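REQUEST ID: PR-0412
SUBMITTED BY: lab tech R.K.
PRIORITY: routine
TASK: structure prediction, single protein chain
INPUT:
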Amino acid sequence: MRETSSVLTLNRKEDNMLYQSTFPQSIFAEMANLQRQIEQLFDFEPNIRGIGRGGFPALNVGRTPQTMELYAFIPGLDPSSIDVNIEQGVLTISGKRTDDLVTGEDKATVHLNERFAGQFKRVISLSDDLDPDTVDARYRDGVLHISIKRRESAQLRRISVH
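STATUS: complete
OUTPUT:
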């Protein structure tokens, strides 16, 4: 009976950890929430292509036989405020998103703010088969689309056999 009791207590604790209150009632709940947020900041999954989870802006990267296609999801920005640079095989996307809640003399009391505000920077290593002189970047409906052509020598060629 005692084991069942501790299992139920454990399950209740897990349920509480998943619950996020918009209007805080307990300092302990807020501390647990802050701890989860800090852990998420340092929950990096490094791999050969960069940091996977938790970065802003979110990225989708793929390739076709002729190009490398990258989509960065950056809603609510002026295209002129986004910097896209390529240097020595590294693509950098950076910019700044302002916080709309706290503006002017009428400061809002913020109860929950999940929208990222501040400066951002994403860095992506490019493969050697991409031509940095053939980059096309377009921003539409909050999505930055970057297309980079592959070098002719790197593209698949069919060789006829006689």
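NOTES: The two ends are 81 Å apart (CA to CA).
REVIEWED BY: pending
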